[in-house]
Design brief:
About 70% of the residues lie in helices and about 0% in strands. It is mainly α and about 180 residues long. The chain has one domain. It has a two-stranded antiparallel sheet with strand order 1-2. The longest helix is centred in the first third of the chain and has 32 residues.
């Protein structure tokens, strides 16, 4: 098997694991927290908009704080090799722009969530005419939405962690 096939296989595995686990965790958490409650609205105590914004920030932040160090640890142990998908890869180009520091990268992923994912999601809900949503439907929506976000964002996270010379960046996890 070539290193490109190996790289693609590893990334695909991470997409399935991260996307699947976040779908289950976020959907189940939303259902357990809201079951038996009233419908969620745009504003107020039961605001789905506030939850979308908070999740759009926290989910990428937390996933980055988990994925990047785990992937770097595997790289340092020799379990994984560096990955570079080449200059024609959008995801590689995106990952190459991120800082070496895990904390700075995680914060940047959180900001992407707040500045891009939350507004796009809320605009979509608005355009589809969603005014209220039952807890059950929201749990399904949130699970699928969170899983999709995690599945997409794990790709640049893995590429950040497994860049060439990434083992020299592990100091940046604790420092800078």
């Amino acid at each position: 098997m070539s290193s490109v096939e190996n790289s693609s296989g590893h990334i695909l595995h991470e997409v399935w694991v991260c996307g699947g686990s976040n779908t289950i965790f976020n959907g189940l958490s939303a259902w357990l927290l809201m079951k038996g409650g009233g419908s969620l609205q745009w504003s107020g105590d039961d605001s789905f908009a506030v939850d979308v914004v908070a999740t759009a920030f926290l989910l990428p932040l937390i996933v980055a704080f988990i994925v990047i160090p785990l992937q770097r640890s595997k790289l340092n142990k020799g379990t994984l090799q560096p990955i570079n998908l080449g200059p024609s890869s959008f995801m590689q180009s995106l990952a190459d722009r991120f800082p070496a520091s895990t904390a700075k990268s995680a914060l940047l992923f959180g900001l992407i969530g707040i500045l891009i994912i939350a507004p796009v999601t809320l605009t979509g809900l608005y355009l589809f005419g969603v005014q209220t949503i039952s807890p059950e439907y929201y749990a399904v929506f949130k699970g699928l939405w969170a899983g999709l976000i995690a599945a997409i964002l794990v790709v640049p996270m893995v590429l950040i962690a497994l860049r060439e010379n990434a083992s020299t960046h592990t100091v940046a996890v604790h420092g800078s």
